[in-house]
Specification:
The chain is α/β, with parallel strands linked by helices. The protein has a single domain (12-327), classed as Rossmann fold (3-Layer(aba) Sandwich), CATH 3.40.50.720. It has helices at residues 12-24, 52-63, 78-87, 102-114, 142-160, 202-227, 258-268, 272-275, 277-284, 306-309, 311-327, and strands spanning 43-47, 67-72, 92-96, 121-124, 174-178, 236-241, 293-297, 300-301. Strands 3-2-1-4-5-6-7-8 form an 8-stranded mixed β-sheet, sandwiched between helices. The relative contact order is 0.17.
Length: 335
């Protein structure tokens, strides 16, 4: 982990400055959200949907007719009821899940199996920026688990349980990961310490956040490769960076800096409703119907970092993740 290089996202101040600068750069837009593109009767699962970007996405997709499943640690049932009241939709459900706990993820997936729920769209949004390292119930580092390994575990469990709609006759399902441009910052993936718990403080948090986003982006690209062998399109896997969002993700920042951060966030960062645009576009646009993979930064199409698209890194990450999960007695049927 010490090999992570210095870059635009090494410190909180640099990360904030880079995010603000990106907002003002002129970019070519990939497209726009169309009113006619709806999600009537589509099942959508959104993690981290009780606040910020996740809540905004849940609200906008409910307005488009989706059957929305909000997977959260808190805000149950109030946030779901709020969306129902705003949209008039009765097809909004909230489910408790703790993404730092394998057992909690398994329990949620088992509920989907029992209720015979199959998803058309999965949006993995939940993420944390802790002020220091913390151990999960299974002894892993919490940010590693929530920001990467839980996402790997969840989709593997959903695929194994046939909770992702894979009917050949149906429109191809979409799997969407909220990542970050900070995935470009690390110099390499540290295979020697993969999954190992280590202590760190606030000074390393932003740097590690980018590192785990590199793991996530690498996994997403590898997932698309495995689900769509020889470019035989079965599933669309999309990744995006929404840019800086005025949310509560920095709620664990030192108390001394929180008033200043609130001012900066309010003035310069996008509201969750506006930042949700690329997520909603990836979930709804007919322009993407035949794409196996895509990456958006804000509303601009870009290539992911070469480390993330390197097939050797993808295969190694898959193998290491499987090995780590087997140590926790979690195995999958899906190859």
């Amino acid at each position: 982990m010490d090999e992570i290089k210095e870059g635009k996202y090494k410190s909180p101040a640099l990360a904030i400055f880079t995010g603000i600068k990106d907002l003002f750069k002129k970019k070519e837009r990939v497209g726009s959200i169309r009113e006619k593109e709806r999600l009537d009767n589509k099942n959508v699962l959104i993690t981290g949907a009780s606040s910020g970007l996740g809540f905004a996405v849940a609200l906008q997709l409910a307005k488009k007719g989706a059957r929305v499943y909000m997977a959260c640690r808190s805000g149950i049932p109030g946030k779901g009821n709020k969306i129902k009241n705003i949209t008039g939709s009765e097809t909004v459900w909230m489910l408790h899940v703790d993404l730092s706990d394998f057992n909690s993820i398994r329990s949620m997936v088992n509920r989907f199996v029992d209720q015979k729920v199959r998803f058309d769209i999965l949006i993995c949004n939940a993420a944390i920026v802790p002020k220091k390292s913390r151990k999960t119930k299974q002894g892993l580092e919490e940010m590693f688990m929530v920001n990467y390994l839980a996402k790997y575990t969840l989709i593997r469990m959903l695929l194994d349980s046939e909770c992702i709609r894979m009917d050949q006759a149906a429109e191809k399902p979409r799997i969407i990961y909220v990542s970050s441009e900070s995935h470009r910052n690390p110099a390499e993936i540290d295979w020697n310490t993969f999954g190992q718990y280590r202590d760190y403080g606030i000074g390393m948090t932003v740097e590690l956040y980018g590192y785990y986003k590199l793991l996530l982006t690498t996994f997403a690209y590898e997932l698309s490769r495995r689900l769509n062998p020889k470019n035989n399109h079965k599933v669309s896997v999309f990744v995006l960076c929404p840019g800086p969002v005025n949310s509560s993700i920095a709620r664990e920042a030192p108390i001394l800096f929180q008033p200043l951060l609130k001012i900066i966030f309010a003035i310069f960062f996008k509201s969750p409703a506006k930042a949700a645009e690329p997520v909603v576009y990836l979930a709804t646009s007919a322009d993407l119907r035949n794409k196996t993979f895509d990456y958006l930064h804000l509303m601009t199409r870009k290539k992911i970092d070469p480390k993330a698209s390197d097939p050797e890194n993808g295969e190694k990450l898959w193998e290491q993740s499987e090995k780590l999960l087997k140590e926790h007695k979690i195995q999958f049927l899906f190859p």
